[in-house]
Structures are given as structure tokens and as C-alpha cells.
Amino acid sequence: MKKYSFTKFEGDYPRGNSTISINRPGLLRLSSSFCKTTNITDFKYVILFFDKLNNAIALHPTNEFEKGASKITKDKKASAVSIKAFIIANNLNLEDYLGKYGWVMQNLPSIGDVYIIELKKNETTA
């Protein structure tokens, strides 16, 4: 007889794609699928990094507050991080980068695990 290993479906599933979005109020919206895939909501803060050459943002989740840390604000399924000060400090125009981004996870020796998005100017402002 064949052996099975069933997992009970409890009605909770990630909706949509696993993305990180930049929206008009200056928030990084972390989709419910991203949160479930990465377990980022197990953390209190993210440290943000900017790579000007590659026009990329890296998010390093942490539970330790340090200078520059941004609080992860959690709602029912997804979460958000305010990036207004980060955008201003890096001389970026928020309107140029509104939209959804795919992400990659990397372990950087000097930082640790990070989630990276590469910014691309949206078509309406490019």
C-alpha cells in the first residue's frame, strides 16, 4: 500500500505574487506571499541599504533596533516599511519608482541575509 504524507489545509494561503511594491505614500509594501515565503514578519525591523551603481535596495530583517532601522508594520496578512527618509537621503524621486518589484535573496558576507529589489524607472515618468 502507498504511504502518503498529507498536510491539512486550514484556509490560509498567500494571495497574489511574492512581490515588494513601492507606493505613493512612501511605503514598501511586502505582499502576503512575500511575508509567508520569507517569514519577514517574525522580525521587528529592517535595515535598508542602497547600491547606487545597480540602483538596488536591500532589506536586512532584524529584531535589534539600530540607527537607521525601519519598523515593519504588520497588518492581517502583509506588511509595510516606511521609506520616505531613505528615498530623500538617497536623492531618489519616489514617483519614478512606484510599482511592483520581484526580489532575490542573497547572503552578503558583510550584512547577512538580505532581500534585494532592483529599481527601474516606471514608464509614465521615464
Furnish the topology, listing elements before pairings:
Elements (H helix, E strand, L loop, with lengths): L19 E4 L3 E4 L1 H7 L6 E7 L4 E7 L7 E5 L4 E4 L1 H6 L9 E3 L2 E5 L3 E7 L8
Antiparallel strand pairs: 1-2, 1-7, 2-6, 3-4, 3-5, 4-9, 5-6, 8-9
Explain what this protein looks like in three dimensions.
This protein is mainly beta and 126 residues long. The protein is built from two helices and nine strands. It has helices at residues 32-38, 84-89; strands at residues 20-23, 27-30, 45-51, 56-62, 70-74, 79-82, 99-101, 104-108, 112-118. It has a nine-stranded antiparallel sheet. A hairpin with a 4-residue loop joins strand 5 and strand 6. The longest helix has 7 residues, at 32-38.
| Low-pLDDT segments | none
How would a textbook summarize the main sheet?
A: 9 strands, antiparallel
Shape: globular
Q: What is the CA-based Rg, rounded? A: 16 Å
Helical residues, percent: 10-25%
* SS summary, helix count: 2
What's the quick description here?
It is built from 2 helices and 9 strands, in the order E-E-H-E-E-E-E-H-E-E-E. By secondary structure, the protein is mainly beta.
Q: Keyphrases for this structure?
A:
126 residues; mainly beta; 9-stranded antiparallel beta sheet; 2 helices
